Fold this sequence. Notes:
eleven-stranded antiparallel beta sheet; disordered N terminus; elongated; 9% helix
Amino acid sequence: MRLLIWMLYSAILFSSCSVENREIPTLEVGQDFTDSNVRVVTIDTFTVALSTFKFDSINTSASNRLLVGGYQDVYFGRVFSEPYFELSAIDYDIPLDAELDSIALILGYDRYFYNDTTQIAEINIHRLLEDVNASDDIFYNTTQLEFDSIPLTSRRFFPEPVDEDSLHIQIPLDFGQELFDLIQDNDINSDQEVRERFNGLTIRNASEGNAAVVGFTRDPESTYLRFFYSIPGEFEDDEGVFDLFINQNVGLPRAYNRIQSDVLNTPLDTLTDQEINLPSALSQNLSFIQSGTGYATRIEFPTLKDIGQIPGTGTVLEAALELRPPTSSFSDDLPIRDSLNVQIVDPNNVITQTIVNGNGAVRALINQENAEFNDLFYQIPLVTYLDQELSQVPEIEDAVVIYPNNYNATVDRIVLQGDGNNSFRAKLILTYAIYDE
């Protein structure tokens, strides 16, 4: 067996295409193999079929982020996110002699943003007209709750998610005076009693401009509705605060993000069901991924089993898929991820398993060799997946799917060039050892 591995390793070292940082599997073959000729070939002519599909819904109540804002995208049209959330308190205690001075919604930045934060943003704060109560204990990116069409207030601002800790939004006093008085008089003493009077808030984008989607934390120490009050004193007033916040310690979700994109009159407009695939050939030879809205790229290899036509017995030593985003599709404002999740979907685009190898879960990683020229491409090691496909009996029309981490809490998007692109086609590079020809 040592001789076998040495022969394969030597053959790869002296083949026309170098193989770096790759595992060579141990081949369980008979002793006759050591007396035969070994030929190692590199093949990159397989068809790589890219298509886009859209998940019907994404659980956005599972994250710890409120996503606020919107921007215009050349591929996805108008992209926006609006959070819906309920508020409650640790205890309901306001001094009887306290007088309400002001109310503010404080939103703590969590450092996430996407697109241009140098553009002014405009948001409206609306009061919810129904409970933040999910029938199946999950809120999705497609869920919309009823709200008062007249906003409590509006705010224009330049997002500063890196330089500032929080965004301060002044709320009209008359909105909270009744609630303040009820708590002060002990007519409200529990979360349920708050819900009966105040369902919560939603923050909606009020501008069609090309600004940014910004992340705010749900952490009660950073994001809260604060009532500022004073207690009259003989010489000076004492000041205090009462806070309502998003309760993170209850079993049911109390906040979520509705994340949407307006793809009307674009090729993506046809993706009305999760089972529908949009081939890259029908979308300008491009495939698309976008977190939050549900777009993902499906990858198939329809000519893979043609490898069986090569004379002799063979085995796959290495397989790497290379995918390139067009350089015009990303920028400092619209960055792409360094790595992506890699999983398997069935014919209905339902995720069935994660692809793993000896190093754990397989990831699509950016090759940084020519990063200074924005010449980037993703590489995905697929030996284990292709071994599974080649030995699959009966055959299943499954496929590889790729998408970013934090898929339910961001709006990051990635565009990929398809198999027929003239400048750089998606390609599968396979190293194959042939013996006993």
